[in-house]
Design goal:
2 copies of one chain form a homodimer.
Chain A: E1 10-16, E2 20-28, E3 34-49, H1 60-65, E4 70-74, H2 76-89, E5 98-102, H3 112-124, E6 133-137, H4 139-151, E7 158-162, H5 165-169, E8 176-181, E9 184-191, E10 196-199, H6 209-226, H7 228-243, H8 250-269, H9 289-295, H10 302-319, H11 325-338, H12 349-362, E11 369-374, E12 377-381, H13 388-403
Chain lengths: 415, 415
């Protein structure tokens, strides 16, 4: 751009509204007739562990909304179990501008039109650009609301209040969100950090056992690849935690959630928007599992699929001599003890293999299969390290090991 | 989080893949049991003015795609007028992984499912996380593709090649993108800067006259509020530029585009993600116009609606004594000369007034109506400064002024 060569067209500027700020600079580039527009977007996401979140005397959630209008989105379960308390919590004068909606979606119906449904309600409720969408529910609800916040007014704020174990230690503290599309898990989504995550393990008291077990899979995943101390806690008290919905042994439930949250966020902080190097320890258990969830028609929950993937990936590591038999035993034993299945008859070697090929695309040309090398350590495998024969051998070994003691997928409870 | 208090949980880290980089830090916050996750996303958007973009000897577009797979999205008009040249341009071996699609959408059908259609094609074409979506078309096409790139793999790269005048100086260089939903213009969207915008005014040679006039509205808008020299160029050569499709007078067409692009980007650089202070000079002409576009069933083009808004906002400034009669005359004369209408019979004062109330919501509680105070200068008006009576007076004055010489909206051409 001739008349601007050699001079900055626009000096660096900064704009801010508290938790979000941005800078930009416009300058000639080295190339002919080229302007370079450099922008920077900074966001702060606060994750707070609190107790009795819905007690009228706990100001945490109200303070975070402040005097802004807000749309509070509940799942049908949350409405049934906590609806009255939610209404009472927001009944004061200070928060008169809060509106509510119930979002009835499961993993099987976690689609883009769910996010649009929330956007439409947000528009009808008169949400402004700085008005938050507050999701109180499981991972489906917080994901859909995160994407809705991204689409409504091009990136409005959102607050996540997870009520499931997966939500507390994974979906409810994540930077990214997504919905499923045309049989592909998380096909459409965005990176859009929430303003706040408010975590209260008291919600687990009403969580069905199966969903507690489901969340344990994500905690075990994290422990196996990055936190041997957390693994030791789970090995000692994991079963009791499931049975008590994290209430007993008393300090351990909170400690496990704290360690998991700090560990997960620490892993995310390495590369929160997944640019460049796509090796992520938290992807352990997340290579085969999206396919498994979809192939099961979402009858297998996310964590259950993660557990199947953790088992298979660990067995692969064993076959390749990367993981000791003892450590493999410890991983698989813990999973079976808390009630997770190690195999699912619906998995074919062909399907697993074609899943790997699709993951290579998603991870930009490299597989980066995360496998444990010890409790608390991991390695990344390329597609060349895997073969259909290796998958078959690993699956067969797991099936034999599992036959002695089948997991919950064979004997589903109704609770 | 007890065990981490006083120490950084995760030190600052940086990840990069060339044009995108990010940093993050996880640290205890001052508040009890709170971790603060601070993230930063940096993106570089290069805007290049080139000539003969589709000439096989011009490597600009091929170089920017490099060895990556790409999905090139064309509009039906671009396919008809330039399809053969586009295919020839990409016919070499180096770019064998380029796939094509034709997106048939108008402003009236610029909806979320258009973006989903592009995402589906991107998935089918095997686009990876770093594979760009390349839009060659007008503002509808570049907007839809920008949003598709945001949703596909949570923020993939995109490249904009605008082929209309509005595209060259506005939509094709913008950081944000949006689609319409349920009768609301730009109701769903995101901020997602493209990697590259490649601008070639030669595309204007095949642009229908009405669309050249349409683009002139955005250039006049920019000139009136921020660039008196640009206004002088338009006053002198605007009509000739429209008639010649920016080919004559020879250096002026390129100069007008260069000034407009640098001016627009300079304005965007002040606050590219629209956080905090929402006063934006480039919002001149963009307060009443979204309603006008929708109310007309999109029979009025974007720039034509912007012109109606510019006229009304300028007349309001005159009524309030903020703009001289001479300067108002210069603005309105220039618009009529290039063929823009100043009034549309479909606008009622009631609708204009309720539009203002909705804009107050979008701009987070303040109207910030941009009005010119001279050629090259502007002010922002709050909702308290406007009344239905003021709108009525202003609209009536404009109608009388316009009656002497009606614009194109009354006598639409078919070209």
């Amino acid at each position: 751009v001739t008349e601007t060569k050699g001079t900055a067209v626009a000096p660096p500027t900064t704009a801010t509204n508290g938790r979000v700020s941005s800078s930009a600079q416009l300058a000639p580039s080295g190339a002919k007739d080229t302007l370079r527009f450099s922008s920077e977007l900074r966001r702060t996401h606060e994750v707070t562990i609190t107790r009795d979140l819905l007690h009228p005397g706990n100001p945490a959630l109200r303070e975070r909304i402040g005097d802004r209008r807000a749309l509070v989105v509940l799942t049908p379960s949350v409405k049934r179990l906590y609806g009255r308390r939610v209404l009472e919590y927001f009944a004061g004068e200070a928060t008169a501008a809060v509106e509510f909606m119930v979002l009835e979606r499961s993993e099987a119906s976690k689609s883009l039109d769910a996010a649009v449904e929330v956007c439409e309600r947000a528009a009808a409720a008169g949400l402004r650009r700085t008005s938050p969408i507050v999701a109180i529910g499981g991972g489906v609800c917080t994901d859909v609301c995160g994407l809705a916040a991204m689409l409504h007014r091009r990136g409005g704020p959102h607050v996540k209040v997870p009520t499931t174990l997966v939500g507390l230690i994974d979906a409810g503290i994540a930077t990214k969100n997504a919905v499923n599309h045309l049989g592909t898990k998380s096909a459409l989504g965005s990176f859009h950090p929430p303003e706040h995550s408010l975590l209260d393990i008291a919600f687990l008291a009403t969580l069905p056992r199966r969903h507690v077990v489901n969340g344990m899979a994500e905690i075990i995943k994290l422990a196996v690849v990055s936190d041997a101390e957390l693994f030791a806690l789970l090995a000692r008290d994991g079963v009791a935690l499931v049975e008590s919905r994290f209430a007993a042994p008393a300090p351990v439930g909170a400690e496990v959630v704290r360690r998991s949250v700090a560990g997960m966020l620490g892993e995310l902080a390495r590369n929160p928007f997944e640019v460049g190097d796509l090796r992520r320890r938290v992807d352990f258990g997340h290579t085969f599992s999206p396919h498994i969830e979809v192939a099961s028609g979402h009858s297998i929950l996310h964590g259950e699929a993660v557990a199947l993937d953790v088992a298979l990936s660990s067995q692969i590591a064993r076959e390749l001599g990367l993981l000791s038999e003892d450590d493999l035993d410890r991983v698989l034993c813990l999973m079976r003890e808390v009630g997770l299945s190690l195999v699912w008859p619906g998995m074919s070697v062909d399907a697993l293999w074609s899943t790997l090929r699709a993951v290579v695309e998603h991870r930009d040309g490299d597989l980066h299969l995360v496998v444990p090398t010890a409790i608390g350590a991991c390695a990344y495998l390329g597609i060349d390290a895997i073969s259909p024969a290796l998958l078959r051998t690993s699956a067969e070994r797991l099936a034999r090991r599992s036959a002695a003691r089948p997991g919950t997928l064979g004997r589903r409870s109704r609770t």
